[in-house]
User: Fold this.
Amino acid sequence: MIFPGGLGEPVAGRPKLEMMAYLDHAATTPMLPAALDAYVAAARELGNPSSLHAAGRGARRLVEESRERIAAALGARPSEVVFTGGGTEADNLAAKGIFWARREADPRLRRVVASAVEHHAVLDAVEWLGRHEEAEVTLQPVDGFGRVDPDGFAELIRAHGDEIAVVSVQWANNEVGTIQPVADLAAIAAAAGVPFHTDAVQAVGQTPVDFAASGAAALTLTGHKVGGPVGVGALLLGRDVPCTPLLHGGGQERDVRSGTLDTPGVVAFATAVEAAVAEREEYTVRVAALRDDLVQRVRAAIPEAILNGDPESRLPGNAHFSFPGCEGDALLLLLDAQGVYCSTGSACSAGVAQPSHVLLAMGADDGRARSSLRFSLGHDSTKADVDALMVALPGAVERARRAGAWKTPR
Amino acid sequence: MSGGVDSAVAAARARDAGHDVTGVHLALARNPQTFRTGARGCCTLEDSRDARRAADVIGIPFYVWDMAEEFHDSVVDDFVNEYAAGRTPNPCLRCNEKIKFAAVLDRAVALGFDAVVTGHHARLGADGLLRRSVDLPKDQSYVLAVLTRQQLDRAIFPLGDSTKERVRAEAAERGLAVADKPDSHDICFISDGDTRGFLESRLGSAPGDIVDGRTGERLGTHNGAYGFTIGQRKGLDLRVPAADGRPRYVLSITPVSNTVTVGPREDLLVDVVSADRPIWHDPASEVDCEVQLRAHGEVVGASVSVTGDALVATLRSPARGVAAGQAIVAYRPDPDGDIVLGSATIAEGIRSDAGALVAEQAATRA
Assistant:
């Protein structure tokens, strides 16, 4: 396919656009220099943290210091930090592991509750339990902003609390950025003795996250959303929360998770978590202002754009719009060609976009769900990124709208 | 980019020509798992991955476009409906007509692209004429002849001057992993290659009679007339041998009475072909030329006349196995590649009096 030269007129050496605006920090964000330095330094060192000799002890020390730093940053005890291979593993461990352990102890505990807007790492794990482990799955609905209503949740707990093995409600939504009333929900679950897991992958460093104060029994976080490396994350798991391992082996992490620990990854992860939490207040003020500017300018340029998600209680870097009449895919392609990187935020199968389950759960119709685009800002975002978006977006919207309804004359 | 070698090299050549190229893979299955697995088709996850890797190596952006609904409506349903109506469709031709150079082209043009590049083996040069590939056994002009002038004006076929062998060698030189990938031959949406089984699952079992075309005698039964194609010899499963002991062929399919009519080989001969929905490029509406009556089929001399919505070809020597639903494509022989003059959808093959005489002679010889 040719873009946008002319037929029979090859545009050799057409200059590549210099401009590049990365507006997809919710997918992954650049590593912080300090985290990268810490990674490289630790990667030069030899030693398996499970070995008993001096080299092993050196690695173990790095791991345990990292565990303490993460615990301190997030209001957890060091023993509550279970390192994993990332957010997906931590979510699976919480959903499946707590379900298995609780049901084994009491066969009546067969129900699993998750919000309808969970990330697939939770949603698919829960649905798998329904298909293969005879779990009763309850997907708790959300309102038009994507929020789980605490009163409705309390009703569910009242009706089914004595059969619920585990509840999972994310701290903040990865697509539309809505922050859930996690403390309220966790308190309701805790009062009924139901373990409450929260996927806080998008929340850490973006909004205050304190594990102890939240009342949650388990909490997922991951490195690459906070300026650390990909492939390392953690489940904060209360010491009294029963959990059956997913991975069996050396039992390195509290006998709940096996596998040789990735020492440099863990060190870089801790460095990033510590920095993200320490800088959170300044970050929130700066990035939210940039985001508000983005939202206001998008609305001014494209008045029919719909801002999705909670207008108040949302992640500072998240702006999520539906552009009526456009396909999100087409917009993404057009913006990509102009060096503006964003996301449709929806799940892919063979690269084919499905309408977002999050937007559908929020009551959007198929068309609005397919017309959506997520812009997510991060620690290195600047006004120039928003400027670049605003140069490219109006034309892209106009073109994508035509692509939805236009036929080549023939 | 199907994930095959041809579209990969076509994309690379277009990029080398200085165009700003974006790779697009079409997802055509409603459920990607339901179509064929393995490397032979064009709709699998593996093929999508192969296409993506080729785009990476070439250095162009790559996207998957979901055309499953359009493909199902325009190609798969049409395929089933055509068989149900006693005709023999060509789904690759329909896909070019309705998907690649319609749904895809429309979307691309609206998004600001100028043309669709494909890895078809056909030539389309500066003169705007569609011609056969230099590689005659691989030539695909037959399934492209359905394209209108407007569609051709936005089509680029960079492979027409190369043999398939040369394309494979070039893919290897370019470091494209698909260089050795086997060609796809079968219908991409029939995963096990069992067309009759596929049709039966869609159309159900519809038993009917197989009758002798000359005597009207009932020779056997079938499970669905859609399972037969004109000219077919195998799979008739007739218990009653022909009087002369010679093989019998499907002569016609009559959906209304659900009858399959069979007869000797010479009864397949027709010398006049009537067709409808012509796409005609040549300024003259009456031409002496060559016609091809099915994909990879023989070419016969003919005089063709096009009037309004009809095309009639009078063949200079009778042809066999002329099936309604297939395309008749008219070519003018040319040293730079035979030129496509136009095409139409075959309505029926007819035997004129002159043709009947030839058939009689053939029978006598037999």
In short: The domain at 269-365 of chain B is CATH 2.40.30.10 (Elongation Factor Tu (Ef-tu); domain 3). Residues 33-42 of chain B have pLDDT under 50 and may be disordered. The longest helix of chain B spans residues 91-110. Chain B touches chain A at residues 14, 17-25, 27, 32, 45, 48, 52, 61, 63-66, 68, 102, 105-117, 126, 148, 150-151, 153-154, 156 (CB under 8 Å).
